[in-house]
Amino acid sequence: MADKKTISNELGLNDQTPREIVAELDKYIVGQDEAKKSVAIALRNRWRSHKLPDEMRDDVIPKNILMIGSTGVGKTEIARRLAKLVKAPFIKVEATKFTEVGYVGRDVESIIRDLVQTAVRMVRKQRTEEVKEKAAANAIERLLDVLVPEPKRSQNPLGKLFGNVENDNAQPDEDNNKKPGREFVRKRLEAGKLEEQVIELEVADHAKPMVGMFSGSSLEGMGDNLQDMVNSLVPKRMRKRKVTVATARKILEQEEAEKLIDMEEVSETAVELAERSGIVFLDEIDKVAVKGSSSGPDVSREGVQRDILPIVEGSTVMTKYGPVKTDYILFIAAGAFHTAKPSDLIPELQGRFPIRVELKSLLKADFEKILTEPQNALLKQYEALLQTEGLKLKFNADAIERLADLAEHVNEQSEDIGARRLHTLLEKLLEQISFEAPDMVKAGKTEVIIDAAYVDERLKEIAKNRDLSQFIL
Prior knowledge:
- With 473 residues, the chain is an alpha/beta fold.
- Helix content is 53%, strand content 12%.
- The protein has 21 helices and 11 strands.
- Helix 7 crosses helix 11.
């Protein structure tokens, strides 16, 4: 029991301070300090609640967050980076994937089933790491059994009548592991001299899942349970494969690790982890908001909100790993809210997202930083891509400034799509260079410098023609 709690705490908690979390997000996301702070505080409150006495901890529920902002300002990127940062089960879903029960679409309870599945993978990975050394040692012994098979003993027909006399001369199994031939092969195996040798290995034939047999609505969970039941009743089929020793080692290590892991304990820990530390990022929430009276297709939208409500409020969802309570799962919802407003959501759902964060539209200075500062900055990506051809790409400061200026201008003139505008501008800007790069290198040209004049030459017509920019950019 103590071990389970230790692992649960290791996986479920992020012990970074809010300032450290924001600093980590700053490496990839420009601006939006308010949103970063809200997310950082929510994560830290998770850590604080785990330190409370048991009687108080159950009363402290996470404060859900609603992010409001145009597309391309960083909502999804914050979610992606958060997923890598936290040691908790995290799932990102689009609200538009779900429809009211009775319509074609996914059941909202599948959000929690997917979250628990993520938790199971995390705990299983943790357990596999714990038994890694023992599994590797067991795999070596099994490899040696294949490489140095025991000689077949001749059967004495009278053996059964007279007490199987040949067993008197047989060595115990543990002595078999120390035979000179086996030890010689063991040393060669440990030295890596047999990695490319091909051997015949007997492995379990994993049946492919019945994809699509059960789809839509609450039948999803039933399909999973039926598949598990069938797998447990039907014995595993074995088949022979010819593989290298290196591949065989990986297969056997995985098989041995599975034998050493208690999947029941993994399931229990994963359910507890999902309940206490799970995070659900619910994107495109504005697409299910209903403006004014609901009729026609809007009926299904309001139905989705009413289906989501019990999960956000706190309910119990049945999964194949057992019942999961959603009371302490943190929900972060996000939407552009161009045509709808947060007040168009049903009042009960509004009340479940007490923290509102508005992400600001990006300006010229933000675009300049996005192009150059983050670890995965766009210009660094394009430079690295063309470097693979042997072509060095260099952007002058005036070119970066001009690109940022154009991005802001086009966003103002047509739809504001935030940082995604830079992708379209850069693709158009570098289209010719990307196409001719191999030929340029063959001709001896290994460096291209992009300046403001080149940016104007490639993009000025599109930027000037507002009607055309709406279609191309």
